[in-house]
């Protein structure tokens, strides 16, 4: 991805790329101009569900100077009011433990618990703008899309 960004920048001397481990993302988020997040789900109030670590980075950005948190997503990730957060997606422990040697899995057995949530919520007050296939959106426009989706769902699924 770094190579593609450099190529797209046309050799711009302003573009600088740093590769860093996840553990320092919140610290580094304080020193950048933009934090770019994706979205697996966007509530009608603008909260965003994304991979674990997104909230930490957004909170780090909030402590920076003039750092904008931008969410890039298609509008089809926006849900109708009342369907906002939905159930928490949980993954089986085997998604982690399958990489462990067999003897480790047998020795640990049920003595450990594996945290199986891969997504978390970033509240809308930590997000500056949403960029979508429909253009740049603010929270009010996200709410409008949520209402539009609710209306479409009502029309399509009425009577079911």
Automatic annotation (TrEMBL):
The molecule here is called Nagb/rpia/CoA transferase-like protein
**Matches recorded under Pfam families:** IF-2B
GO MF terms listed in the record are: S-methyl-5-thioribose-1-phosphate isomerase activity; transferase activity
* Keywords annotated in UniProt: Transferase
InterPro entries in the record:
IF-2B-related, IF_2B-like_C, NagB/RpiA_transferase-like
Q: Which Gene3D superfamilies match?
A: Translation initiation factor eif-2b, domain 2 (3.40.50.10470)
GO biological process, any: L-methionine salvage from methylthioadenosine
- Hey, which family's this protein in? Belongs to the eIF-2B alpha/beta/delta subunits family.
């Amino acid at each position: 991805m770094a190579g593609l960004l450099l190529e797209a920048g046309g050799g711009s001397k302003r573009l600088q790329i740093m590769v860093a481990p996840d553990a320092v993302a919140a610290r580094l988020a304080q020193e950048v101009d933009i934090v770019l997040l994706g979205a697996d789900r966007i509530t009608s109030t603008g909260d965003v569900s994304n991979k674990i670590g997104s909230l930490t980075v957004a909170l780090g950005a909030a402590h920076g100077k003039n750092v904008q948190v931008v969410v890039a997503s298609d509008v089809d990730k926006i849900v109708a009011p009342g369907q906002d957060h939905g159930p928490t997606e949980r993954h089986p422990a085997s998604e982690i433990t399958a990489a462990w040697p067999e003897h480790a899995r047998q020795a640990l057995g049920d003595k450990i618990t594996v945290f199986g949530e891969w997504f978390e919520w970033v509240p809308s007050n930590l997000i500056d703008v949403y960029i979508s296939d429909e253009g740049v959106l603010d929270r009010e426009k996200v709410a409008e899309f949520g209402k539009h989706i609710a209306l479409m769902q009502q029309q399509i699924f009425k009577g079911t």
